[in-house]
Amino acid sequence: MEETTANKSKKQSTGPGNSISTWSVQCGDCFKWRVIPTQEQYEEIRSKFLEDPFVCSKLPTVSCDEPGDIEYDNTRTWVIDKPNLPKTPPGFKKRLVLRKDYSKFDCYYDAPNGKRLRSSAEASRFLDKHPECKKDVSPSDFSFFSPKIMEDTIPTKVVKKI
């Protein structure tokens, strides 16, 4: 089931160089897209998506009978995220930045002290140097997975170099 659209979370971006601007998930029952207000709420849903798939009734005052919040189309660039990735560790900020050529997202974590972490190895070294962070966070809490850009939603004026 992991490969069906009903079991994947999706996000969208406003353009190159921008981070994700709208977080959304697809209902496993009605397949409508629901906007999730914050990255933190989105990550909570995504972190346990396979064992607890999203359905509209999990949101207050929303049901499958209501129209979707957002439609999958090419008015924005959509990306598909992998289910069950860990939530961003407490005190850190995760950023996904779309490359100008729309080839991929670069994933970064900003540490509490402002240091930017660009890889699992950097995250592990950072935690070794900052034991005060290590009590609440482990290297496995960082995922540098880059969501897949849905090619049918890339603006036609962008020349892909992939």
- DSSP summary: helix tally: 3
Helix content: 10-25%
The strands making up the biggest β-sheet line up spatially as 3-2-1-4-8
> What distance separates the N and C termini?
29 Å
Question: Could you list the spans in which at least 5 consecutive residues all have pLDDT below 50?
Answer: 1-10, 12-18
Order of helices and strands: EEEHEEEEHHE
Biggest sheet architecture? 5 strands, antiparallel
CATH architecture: 2-Layer Sandwich
Q: How many domains would you count in the coordinates?
A: 1
Structural class: alpha+beta
Form type: globular
Mean pLDDT: 86
Assign the CATH superfamily.
Methyl-cpg-binding Protein 2, Chain A
Report the top-level CATH class.
Alpha Beta
Care to count the β-strands? 8
| Topology-level CATH name | Methyl-cpg-binding Protein 2, Chain A
Amount of beta strand: 15-25%
CA radius of gyration? 17 Å
